[in-house]
């Protein structure tokens, strides 16, 4: 019988994120040598990389940071995916995700393709993604990258489960400085995490989408038998509702629904610039 204990199995699982049976088999083959077992797990993982290619990666985490570049703050955020929540909360996966974030910051990459081509430890990041999958025994993917800049940038990470790393991440950039601006930027970032706006302001909403919503509102009101004279007002009211649901500056503030986000930022003398919001798997 191989010379290892339950504690050895637990330790190797924590190092690799691999399943119980895979760890036991590797320890058996390595006669209890943890380092050799680790190598065997990696080799087995690399051989299975092609088999994992079509698997779904619906779990993972969001990581973000804010750096100072000259007179600006720059927020960078990545979503890194895996197959199971067990791997998502493992130390090796979290460590790898932090490495991806660091590469995103240092490279200045604006999209995932550019990020994957970035040199990290003497090889493209894309190769490290494959190696991470080999070590963890699951498909690993870098799904999204966001970068926003402004005088003040807030990065907010939210855990949907206390046992998992952050599943929701927000970057919110504004022009303006000072305690009130910083506080408002943070409050709005938290709001964005909860209320999922799709656009910063009405100008960002595609004109064809606005027209489609207007047409649907008109046709719905007519189907409901609303009087002709009231149609214009009803349509505009429903369009306003669409903007409140989808446009950040139009949304009622989560902490005080009597104010819009636009009013909150104006009172703090903060001018909104851009935001990004990621939720793992969505």
UniProtKB/TrEMBL annotation:
InterPro entries: EF-Ts_dimer_sf, Transl_elong_EFTs/EF1B, Transl_elong_EFTs/EF1B_dimer, Transl_elong_Ts_CS, UBA-like_sf
CDD domains xrefs: UBA_EF-Ts
A cellular component term, taken from the record's GO annotations: cytoplasm
Start and end residues of each stretch annotated as Involved in Mg(2+) ion dislocation from EF-Tu: 84-87
Coiled coil: none
GO molecular function, one term: translation elongation factor activity
Highest taxon in the source lineage: Bacteria
Record keywords: Cytoplasm, Elongation factor, Protein biosynthesis
Domain Translation elongation factor EFTs/EF1B dimerisation residues, every copy: 75-281
Subcellular location: Cytoplasm
A Pfam family matched in the record: EF_TS
First-listed, main subcellular location of the protein, grouped into a coarse class: cytoplasm
Functional note: Associates with the EF-Tu.GDP complex and induces the exchange of GDP to GTP. It remains bound to the aminoacyl-tRNA.EF-Tu.GTP complex up to the GTP hydrolysis stage on the ribosome.
NCBIfam families on file: tsf (TIGR00116)
Recorded family membership: Belongs to the EF-Ts family.
Name this protein carries in UniProt: Elongation factor Ts
Gene symbol of the encoding locus: tsf
């Amino acid at each position: 019988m191989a010379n290892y204990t339950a504690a050895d199995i637990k330790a190797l699982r924590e190092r690799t994120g691999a399943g119980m049976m895979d760890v036991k088999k590797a320890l058996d083959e390595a006669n209890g040598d943890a380092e050799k077992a680790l190598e065997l797990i990696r080799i087995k993982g690399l051989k299975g990389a092609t088999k994992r290619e079509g698997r779904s990666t619906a779990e993972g985490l969001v990581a973000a940071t804010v750096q100072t570049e000259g007179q600006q703050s720059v927020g960078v955020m990545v979503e890194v995916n895996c197959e199971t929540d067990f791997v998502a909360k493992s130390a090796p996966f979290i460590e790898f995700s932090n490495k991806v974030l660091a590469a995103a910051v240092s490279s200045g990459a604006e999209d995932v393709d550019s990020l994957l081509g970035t040199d990290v430890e003497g090889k493209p990041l894309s190769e490290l993604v494959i190696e991470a999958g080999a070590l963890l025994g699951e498909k690993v993917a870098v799904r999204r990258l966001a970068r926003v800049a402004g005088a003040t940038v807030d990065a907010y990470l939210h855990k949907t489960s206390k046992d998992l790393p952050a599943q929701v991440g927000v970057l919110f950039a504004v022009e303006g400085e000072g305690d009130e601006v910083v506080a408002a930027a943070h409050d709005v970032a938290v709001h964005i995490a909860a209320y999922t706006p799709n656009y910063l302001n009405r100008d960002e909403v595609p004109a064809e989408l606005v027209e489609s919503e207007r047409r649907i509102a008109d046709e719905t009101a007519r189907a409901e038998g609303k009087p002709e004279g009231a149609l214009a007002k009803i349509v505009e009211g429903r369009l306003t509702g669409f903007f409140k649901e989808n446009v950040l500056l139009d949304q009622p503030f989560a902490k005080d629904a009597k104010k819009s986000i636009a009013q909150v930022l104006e009172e703090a003398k903060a001018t909104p610039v851009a935001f990004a919001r990621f939720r793992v798997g969505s």
